[in-house]
Task: inverse folding
């Protein structure tokens, strides 16, 4: 099951932040997420709850919310006293000498956060008010944890970070959060894992003026269920409120900043009106006592009900009454808060959604959030209710028709701007755009292999929300399609798209799948999306996709190439064949680490934007036995075009694919002779499914093994050692490449590459043909020196270059380079192609 983890920076059992989290979490819950919530007791130092265990807090929350938190006790130095000192001295006063300790503690706290997320198997995180600099240790730690866990778990944009009280909005007059430009507050980090949300346009504007490099910030106001509440019998009797008397509802915390004294002064000037305060009197006993005294002085004690903390308006819990029940009975709702305390004003939104007229103070952001949209309400502009304000409230209390019209007007606008479907849409968009990778799987008559292949793709250690499968059937005549549909039905957590490609050929099927995936992936700014190629007869390791994803994200390369291997159990009776295979793969590991390699259909990823930039996969046709057939070099051709466009290719050695041994079991004769995929310049797919018993128990002779090795290394070396240098000449300036070749050889290679590039300026049909000839030429000219470096780096058993074609025995040594050119450019005979072969099936 997917798991949502919420973090509230409020450190109170129930508050506006927690209510908003519960509303958002209910959307995730409806979509199958299990919900955990950290109330932030170990974040804020002024709530007297640091390290305090949870007690009865869950009674204020729905039963589907599980209270949870990282274990931060025992981290030396991380105490409420130090957090308070950092807020006062570092954030507020600008003192910098404590910052090294802040950074050190943040690293330790980050480790604990990640451990908690691992334990809970978190897949999504919602942060409420994380930018408020009450505890910059925790904020820094949270950003570190997001980066670490996102990379480790292979998650994309898995964090929704919503700020309610940014430091320039919350108590700016107090100075406890410092002064602009807030040098020691933690700026929002531009992260591929985080979607920021501001509650209104002004908050987004100010955020971007402060954190100018931020890309992903959306505007989403607090949203509400706009269905009208129904009165719950017994509510008035329970709280001692007579039937029929007007009620002004004040849903708030009982603290000085909320200015409940204004409500007491208001009802003192209104007859027969009751005030119901829904807040916890125990949160600030001194303020509660002050309000009681004021009520007695004003003679309104009998008409004031401190009803305690009620359950959130939109979520039923096991508690007797909720804010919804109060608003169902209320005549008016009040929000006479202090000017600079509230940034949003949830109680106004709750009243609008409930169809209750409201009255408000002219707090700092009232017009930004509500007033500019045309809501109607009495607005207090003085410190205490003046006669004009009292008269407007009295008129509303007396005129039922006016109340009804005002409520209907506000409700209609509220549904337009603050309905719950806006939250649902954002969550759905985030969950949808979390699909960062589409794995394209061309298939043709693979019913026997497909269950194991799909099982290995399903078992990836990566959230299924982050990738999907695009399976392209290429005219299968067996049960391939039925197998795919059955697997998709049995594994609904992983999306599998099933496409048809009527034109026969793996290149056509791969292009169809890649083009489809490119169109359907998201378009979030600053987010990279990847098209991934897989092979229907190979199995992938469980870390194949997450390691490929991690490597692509960290290196920002256009293409990521994975590692391939054979299962040695298939070759226990064939040690000579196994040795030939392993020598090729060892060379591959070294050269790919140096040069990045090239994409192979068995497993590579490409950045979707780069794929589109170079025009995607191109199908090139050739004549074979009098018929046009598509060329099999689409993956190499594509890689050459990407690298030739100036983009980078990166090797991901920890992303591994197990090659099906049928590639050598049933084509061994062609492998030995270097004709596995054709000859004389024609490259075609040979169906290597078993048509006869496997030869896996029959080893090669020494001569056959040597011949297989020679064709394999002749196919491999021009592609993987020479071609990268031709495409990216700057590689020869790399310290690692210079170390591999040696300074003298690098200098000669650089000079020769420049000469050949200047000499051969003819543009051929496809990149792979443009680069074959110069690659062959450079190989033949430098073979002895390249193999010397392979022996020194990979091992002495790599040996020496395979013998030259017999025709070179007649060439004078002084004219060797000249005749290499004639040999490699002679396409009519196809001799060069046959010499280098296509034995790279290893």
Result:
């Amino acid at each position: 099951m997917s798991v949502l983890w919420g973090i509230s920076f409020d450190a109170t059992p129930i508050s506006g932040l927690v209510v908003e989290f519960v509303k958002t979490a209910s959307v995730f819950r409806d979509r199958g997420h299990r919900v955990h919530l950290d109330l932030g007791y170990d974040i804020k130092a002024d709530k007297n709850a640091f390290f305090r265990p949870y007690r009865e807090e869950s009674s204020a929350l729905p039963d589907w919310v599980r209270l949870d938190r990282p274990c931060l006790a025992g981290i030396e130095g991380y105490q409420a006293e130090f957090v308070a000192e950092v807020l006062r001295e570092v954030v507020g006063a600008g003192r910098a000498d404590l910052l090294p300790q802040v950074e050190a503690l943040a690293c330790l706290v980050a480790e604990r956060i990640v451990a908690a997320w691992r334990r809970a198997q978190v897949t999504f995180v919602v942060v409420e008010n994380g930018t408020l600099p009450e505890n910059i240790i925790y904020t820094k730690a949270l950003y570190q944890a997001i980066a670490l866990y996102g990379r480790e778990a292979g998650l994309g944009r898995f964090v929704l970070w919503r700020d309610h009280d940014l430091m320039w909005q919350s108590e700016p007059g107090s100075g406890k959060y410092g002064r602009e430009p807030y040098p020691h507050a933690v700026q929002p980090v531009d992260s591929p894992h985080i979607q920021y949300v501001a509650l209104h346009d002004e908050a987004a504007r100010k955020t971007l003026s402060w954190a100018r490099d931020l890309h992903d910030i959306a505007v989403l106001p607090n949203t509400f269920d706009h269905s009208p509440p129904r009165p719950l019998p017994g509510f008035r009797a329970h709280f001692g409120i007579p039937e029929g008397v007007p009620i002004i509802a004040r849903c708030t915390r009982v603290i000085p900043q909320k200015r409940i004294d204004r409500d007491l002064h208001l009802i003192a000037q209104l007859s027969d009106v009751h005030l119901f305060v829904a807040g916890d009197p125990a949160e600030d006993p001194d303020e509660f006592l002050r309000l009681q005294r004021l009520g007695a002085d004003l003679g309104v004690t009998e008409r004031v009900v401190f009803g305690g903390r009620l359950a959130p308006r939109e979520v039923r819990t096991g508690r007797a009454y909720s804010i919804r029940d109060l608003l169902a009975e209320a005549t008016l709702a009040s929000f006479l808060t202090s000017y600079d305390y509230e940034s949003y004003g949830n109680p106004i939104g709750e009243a609008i959604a409930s169809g209750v007229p409201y009255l408000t103070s002219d707090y700092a952001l009232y017009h930004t959030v509500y007033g500019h949209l045309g809501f109607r309400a009495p607005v207090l502009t003085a410190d205490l209710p003046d006669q004009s304000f009292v008269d407007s409230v009295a008129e509303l209390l007396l005129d039922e028709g006016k109340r009804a019209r005002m409520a209907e007007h506000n409700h209609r606008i509220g549904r337009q701007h603050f309905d719950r479907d806006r939250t649902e849409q954002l969550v759905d968009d985030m969950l949808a755009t979390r699909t960062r990778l589409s794995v394209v799987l061309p298939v043709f008559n693979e019913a026997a292999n497909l269950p194991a292949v799909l099982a290995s793709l399903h078992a990836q250690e990566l959230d299924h929300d982050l990738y999907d499968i695009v399976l392209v059937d290429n005219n299968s005549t067996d049960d391939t399609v039925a197998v795919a549909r059955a697997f998709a039905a049995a594994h609904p957590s992983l999306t599998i798209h099933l496409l048809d490609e009527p034109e026969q050929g793996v290149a056509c099927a791969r292009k169809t799948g890649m083009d489809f995936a490119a169109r359907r992936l998201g378009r979030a700014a600053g987010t990279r999306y990847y098209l991934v190629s897989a092979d229907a007869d190979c199995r992938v390791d469980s870390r194949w996709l997450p390691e490929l994803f991690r490597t692509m994200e960290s290196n920002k390369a256009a293409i990521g190439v994975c590692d391939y291997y054979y299962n040695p159990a298939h070759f226990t009776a064939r040690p000579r064949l196994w040795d030939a295979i392993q020598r090729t793969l060892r060379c591959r590991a070294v050269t790919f680490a140096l040069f990045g390699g090239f994409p192979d259909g068995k497993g590579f990823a490409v950045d979707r934007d780069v794929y589109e930039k170079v025009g995607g996969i191109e199908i090139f046709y050739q004549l074979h036995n009098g018929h046009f057939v598509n060329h099999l070099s689409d993956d190499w051709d594509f890689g050459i075009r990407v690298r030739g466009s100036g983009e980078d290719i990166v090797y991901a050695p920890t992303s591994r694919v197990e090659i099906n041994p049928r590639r050598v079991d049933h084509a061994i004769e062609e492998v030995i002779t270097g004709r596995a995929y054709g000859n004389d310049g024609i490259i075609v797919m040979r169906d290597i499914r078993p048509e006869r018993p496997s030869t896996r128990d029959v080893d090669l002779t020494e001569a056959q093994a040597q011949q297989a090795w020679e064709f394999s290394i002749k196919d491999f070396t021009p592609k993987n050692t020479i071609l990268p240098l031709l495409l990216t000449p700057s590689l020869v300036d790399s310290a690692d490449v210079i170390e591999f070749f040696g300074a003298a050889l690098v200098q000669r290679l650089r000079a020769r590459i420049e000469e050949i590039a200047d000499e051969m300026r003819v543009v051929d049909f496809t990149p792979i043909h443009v680069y074959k000839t110069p690659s062959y030429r450079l190989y033949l000219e430098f073979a002895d020196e390249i193999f010397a470096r392979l022996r020194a780096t990979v091992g002495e058993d790599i040996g020496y270059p395979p013998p030259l074609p017999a025709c070179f025995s007649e060439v004078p040594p002084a004219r060797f380079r000249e005749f290499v050119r004639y040999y490699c450019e002679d396409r009519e005979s196809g001799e060069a192609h046959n010499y280098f072969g296509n034995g790279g099936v290893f």
About this structure: The longest strand covers residues 649-658. The chain has a mean pLDDT of 87. DSSP finds 29 helices and 23 strands in the chain.
